[in-house]
Amino acid sequence: MAPSDCKILPTRDSRIFHFRVRLSSPEDHRHVHASTVVAGCKCEAVYMLLQSSPEILVLIAVRPNPDLEGDPKVSARMVLLDKTGSPAPSMGTGTPTNIGGSIPGLIGCYNLIARRDKVKANCVVDNYFVVLCSVDINWTSPTSSLKQELPSLGHDLAMMWDKQDLTDVSFDVGGESFSAHRLVLATRSPVFRAELYGVMAESKMASITIHDMEASTFRSMLHYIYHSSLPDAGKIDISSPMAQYQHLLVAADRYGVEGLKKICEDKLCCNGITTDTGFNVGTCGGPCLPQTQS
């Protein structure tokens, strides 16, 4: 069969085209093909006879344009047209085939198989038959995956605190000064909200002094407020981890930081508290009991 024995006829819709093919004789086992472009992808229509079979095969193979960025998703439909030009699904319709997975660069492959005698009797006009082809290609923009990787607002606020950027309030605790953001503190703690935005005197002060708290405890509480986690062990100044959790529990309760309270209670109740910590285990509200020393 010569290349002129098949042709792609476009329609007003760029996704839809007609594949017009001359019906070959049973002795002719060669194939013919023609191609077009849909949504930046090359669509190749192929017609061939199946050897030792009374059937014919029409196939659509889709290849992406390597110059375009993104992830194309392909779906296609094929149906034979009868002699009046109307769809004849009873003659055969296109179905996906897994052949594409074995051919490099192929992102979609669909085939239509029909009996040659039925095609000749119902679809052939002047020795030609027509397959109506519809190819939908949806590109997933690479920016959509980048959006999922962008830092969250919480991450950005934590980075601002780490860099001490645009802070608007400071605290004097245990001889050290700590800067923070009023809005973040008020969002995370009802006590800070009342102090910084209520009628209390602290709401008018640029620097606030906090008594009865160690600097390392306040630093760890601020870290939790911004990061929702405790700082690395190497950054904790208190030598005893259990003592650190004791102080943090008192601070979290004082400022209503419920998540931090829960962490401290779990650690103190379930990590072998002994009486030398001086902590009242009853505040845990759990089943863990202090261990007695022999």
Question: Main attributes?
Answer:
294 residues; 4-stranded antiparallel sheet; disordered C terminus; rod-shaped; 12 strands; Apoptosis, Tumor Necrosis Factor Receptor Associated Protein 2, Chain A; alpha+beta
Describe this structure in words.
This protein is α+β, with helices and mostly antiparallel strands and about 290 residues long. It has 2 domains: about 5-140, Apoptosis, Tumor Necrosis Factor Receptor Associated Protein 2, Chain A (Sandwich); about 150-280, Potassium Channel Kv1.1, Chain A, CATH 3.30.710.10. It is about 30% helix and about 30% strand. It has helices at about 115-120, 140-150, 155-160, 180-190, 190-195, 215-225, 240-255, 260-270, and strands at about 5-10, 15-20, 30-40, 40-50, 55-65, 70-80, 95, 110-115, 130-140, 170-175, 175-180, 205-210. A 5-stranded antiparallel sheet has the order 3-4-5-8-7. Strands 1-2-9-6 form a 4-stranded antiparallel sheet. A 3-stranded mixed sheet has the order 11-10-12. It is rod-shaped, with a radius of gyration of 37 Å. Mean pLDDT is about 80; it is low at about 275-294. InterPro entries: BPM1-6, BTB/POZ_dom, SKP1/BTB/POZ_sf. It comes from Triticum aestivum (Wheat). Pathway: Protein modification; protein ubiquitination. This is BTB domain-containing protein.
